[in-house]
Amino acid sequence: MNFLALDTSTDTLFVAVQRGDAIWQYSGPGAQQSSSQLLPAIRQLMSEAGLAFKELDAIAFGRGPGSFTGLRTACAITQGLAFAAKVPVLPIDTLLAVAEEARQLHGCNEVMAVLDARMNEVYHAPFSYENGDWIVPEDFGLCAPEALQVPAGLTVAGNAQHVYPEQLAPQAAHVHALPTATALLRLAPALLAKGCAVPAEQALPRYIRDKVAKTTAEREAEKRAAQLADTPATPTP
């Protein structure tokens, strides 16, 4: 199968292309640099793989949770490429990708996936790998690192332990794992077979925290409302 996978949800940018059994991959600085580096990296890997976008079975992207800017960047670029090539999109949870990376790197089958959410909070969700597939919870959580409860037997995997070394589940076992593009590639075939692919226009980020910033329109609307509220009422004749 042929896939393009990308993740910009953390401070590291990941891109990978799979053609049959062969994989080409790239990683580099993410965050604010994702928007400038992502498309060149995609073009380079697709060229190295000798693939046209229309030959892809799907484009997979880390839909979140994670950096708001990163998620929007990944979603927008994925939508544009998928729409132009007329291929489906696989939006994949970043916490699931963390669990898969922990399994691949460290042999973990019972995982509490955790990603730094900034603002002294972490995203988290428990995952179990059984009979060749991940059991995924319906809801993901957001809490202060010291409030995270880790059931016995689960390994904490992610990128938050070095940020909150004393607060985050100090009694639990920890491993470092990120939502890599190659983890997305390993998850993609099963998710595609389950019917998880969507048309480009239906591919959306997954936000856990409601908002961290207001849009320009929201700020302008609030400003107008405040000005209106400060305007003295006109006396009725």
Architecture overview:
This protein is α/β, with parallel strands linked by helices. Helices cover 32% and strands 27% of the residues. It has five helices and eleven strands. The protein has helices at 34-49, 68-85, 94-106, 181-193, 216-230; strands at 2-7, 12-19, 22-29, 58-64, 89-93, 110-116, 122-130, 133-135, 141-143, 155-158, 174-176. Strands 6, 7, 8, 9, 10 and 11 form a six-stranded mixed β-sheet that branches. Strand 1 and strand 2 (12-19) form a beta hairpin. Helix 1 packs parallel to helix 2 (68-85) and helix 3 (94-106) packs across helix 4 (181-193). The chain is globular. Mean pLDDT is 90; it is low at 211-219 and 228-237.
Query: Strand portion, in percent?
Result: 25-35%
Radius of gyration: 20 Å
Question: Based on CA inertia axes, which overall geometry fits?
Answer: globular
Largest sheet: 6 strands, mixed
Summing up helix and strand content along with how strands pair, one would put the structural category as alpha/beta
Helix and strand run: EEEHEHEHEEEEEEHH
Average pLDDT metric:
90
Distance between the termini: 77 Å
The count of helical stretches stands at 5
Report the strand count: 11
Give the helix level as a range of percent.
25-40%
The poorly predicted ranges are 211-219, 228-237
